[in-house]
Specification:
The structure is a homodimer of 469-residue chains. Chain A has 469 residues and is α+β, with helices and mostly antiparallel strands. Chain A has four domains: 92 residues, Uridine Diphospho-n-acetylenolpyruvylglucosamine Reductase, domain 2 (2-Layer Sandwich), CATH 3.30.43; 117 residues, 2-Layer Sandwich (Uridine Diphospho-n-acetylenolpyruvylglucosamine Reductase, domain 3); 105 residues, Alpha-Beta Plaits, CATH 3.30.70; 91 residues, Alpha-Beta Plaits (2-Layer Sandwich), CATH 3.30.70.2740. In chain A, the strands form five sheets. Chain A has a six-stranded antiparallel β-sheet, with helices on both faces. In chain A, β17 and β18 form a beta hairpin. The two termini of chain A are 13 Å apart. In chain A, 60% of the residues are buried. The interface between A and B is large, with 99 and 99 residues.
Chain lengths: 469, 469
Amino acid sequence: MALNDLEVLPRNESGISTAVDVLKQRFGEQLKTSQSLREQHSHTMTYIPSQLPDAVVFAKSTEDVQEIVRVCAEYKVPIIPFGTGTSLEGGVNAPAGGISIDLNDMNKIISVNEEDLDCVVQPGVTREALNEHLRDTGLFFPIDPGANASLGGMAATRASGTNAVRYGTMRENVINVTAVMPDGRVVKTANRARKTSAGYDLTKLMVGSEGTFGVITELTLRLYGIPERISAGVCQFDSVDGACQTTILSMQAGLPLARIELLDSLQVEMINAYSGLEYEAKPTLFLEFHGTNAAVDEQIEMFNSFAEEFGGSGVQWVDSTEARNKLWKARHDAYYAMLAWRPGCRGIATDACVPISKLAECIAQTQSDAEELNLVAPVVGHVGDGNFHITPLVMMDDADEVARAEEFIERLNLRAIAMEGTCTGEHGIGQGKRRFVRLEHGAGADIMMSLKKAMDPDNIMNPGKVVGL
Amino acid sequence: MALNDLEVLPRNESGISTAVDVLKQRFGEQLKTSQSLREQHSHTMTYIPSQLPDAVVFAKSTEDVQEIVRVCAEYKVPIIPFGTGTSLEGGVNAPAGGISIDLNDMNKIISVNEEDLDCVVQPGVTREALNEHLRDTGLFFPIDPGANASLGGMAATRASGTNAVRYGTMRENVINVTAVMPDGRVVKTANRARKTSAGYDLTKLMVGSEGTFGVITELTLRLYGIPERISAGVCQFDSVDGACQTTILSMQAGLPLARIELLDSLQVEMINAYSGLEYEAKPTLFLEFHGTNAAVDEQIEMFNSFAEEFGGSGVQWVDSTEARNKLWKARHDAYYAMLAWRPGCRGIATDACVPISKLAECIAQTQSDAEELNLVAPVVGHVGDGNFHITPLVMMDDADEVARAEEFIERLNLRAIAMEGTCTGEHGIGQGKRRFVRLEHGAGADIMMSLKKAMDPDNIMNPGKVVGL
């Protein structure tokens, strides 16, 4: 899909019209068809234009979802699950129309099992709401994609973020999901045991399936004890390579980095301007250690010695919640800092992830591309995972710039794949990256298509996403 | 399946006979049909009787596997992948006959990527051979199911073992697999990036599929830095509950336990007798910490204070490789200690795994069952995961004892499922637990069957295992 294009799929007009009528009868005020609400439910944070669903139903229970799915199944009408609408690849768009199921009213925390370090939640609970609820337990849920996303949506897209280097992604932290399947059956993918060999891994099949196999209506998540001490630091380097080599050495030495984020010098300039900070305009690592007092002291000492070896300087460590929050807010505001840097632009999200040994080279070649193609494209990266986001800032009415951005993204994704990596480490395929699934997976893409056919033979679950037609 | 029964599936006699002829032509001395070799390839370590394949082919490459699979696909002949034959649920049996593919000659370590903390291996490499090869790199592969299993087999059964509480299971440590699918296509499930959101999780679909979707011919595994210090300890309690509560508190406090193994007093008596040790006959934890010097000191101190709170006593910590090896050898020899305790018996493997809050209760009720049913059944447990093996020691020619053991296992598996756990934490379903898949998964078992149908429409891949007919 080109940046300004929208793939439009054939619409089942009569089915949609009948299903909307039937659902209206059943759900009354829970169903809305206003233009503004439908727009809001196909809005994405990115450049991808909206494709509106025909109606939005606000589900309040698994039974509601089951009933909506049964009606849609009967009339072969598309279903698009909706959480907070913060997906970055058009996951909530409705290229063939259909029913958006809004899950925000399903926002109960069903249980917190402190001894088991897990909790059971409805899909509309956001990660911030969960952590707020957990405050008095000494536990927390670490996955933090930046946006205050819904946990159901995070599971559906296999999200991660800054803490993944220590705590894993949604892949490692979802113990089970309950989902309504395309024929209306309710399936729970596993029990609450922390490990299982009882047959095929249905949990991992649902995590990252982007709503194309079913609608998640409940999920069990791993929790962690809040560490005794958290220390955050900022370390600046002369080169991206120095920052990457420091990270590699830290990981080989088994340093339990809780976060390690790279910003290139352009991105540092942008956050300086946006957040009133005064970092040097150099490649910079923002990082954090979690642990006991003595352990964190030791980790800081080891990290400092590694960083020094690769030209790192000016490391300052802060422990207080206030100082840490200020530091991470600057990192989390990177996206807004970009947009403010070039007013009127769109930031085109990219999400390459490569083996860490190839990260510095991948970033360097991609920065060269940006220069050659005359694009403004700052870098932030979850460098411990080999995942980085270089974001061309594009004026969408400048056809030449749009074309150059397309060329840039094409090169980046092919480069990541050629380096034994992936075009998407944490955003998902959605509509935006469908073309690259086949390039990346080869015959695996055929397997994916046969899974889709087996799980959703009528192709009603979020059609036009991942490998669905 | 009752303990002494064997489910026999219909045999495709003419297909098998033709396929063996064709393969003999092609593979010559790589194909064997001697009785002893066929017996060895269906032998399991457990009570499950052997069901012989019709021929064994020793594959030397992915291309060999591909050719064998194509021939078997053409004549609709079962394929049973074989590693070291240490699976515990009849995974290598051939209930419908067919071709056993022996993968032991595919034992090359293809690459070790030290900076990326991963390696690429053929499926016949054993975990000990890999760690031997890694010795000079400062890296290691932690998953340790006890037996010196092949890494392909460990991936196929989603194995784990004593280190899972810290390092996860094969689920968390397989980055990708290359597999020959039932139609002969070669599929690589993912690239080497440490995380990916690029479509459905084919890697996790293959891990734990027990050879029912395809034959793994290559895999990429995560590696870890060898910790600066390893300390192992033994701590004895008055009750299983005290040992469990100490474990729960340690995990809530974020203590990075690398191993924590429970032995009940009966099992302690057995290892004392077998290994010439002198532990008190009390519930006992064997545990291990990995980390830097200061961190391990701190962890030991915290653990000691928790253990004291719950009546733990006599903790002794050892650091030297020799002393640690002696300690863990006693734990790893638990199975042989059991068999020696009651000469002539078979140990019936069980593998319940429950949320840790329910572990002490689950063990206590199961021990009561053993007493009520007059069975000798010692307990070892990966207590940090909520996973325990209670092993009735049964004289297989005593029909009454066999019947009581069946009743015992039935109650145990139903109890684990009722406690939101699973009948198998790490052994897999194989033939032995097929009946429990449906009880545990409900409608999920139907989804599993439709996946099996989509992946292997002719049901040639390890038929009669997991949910296959």
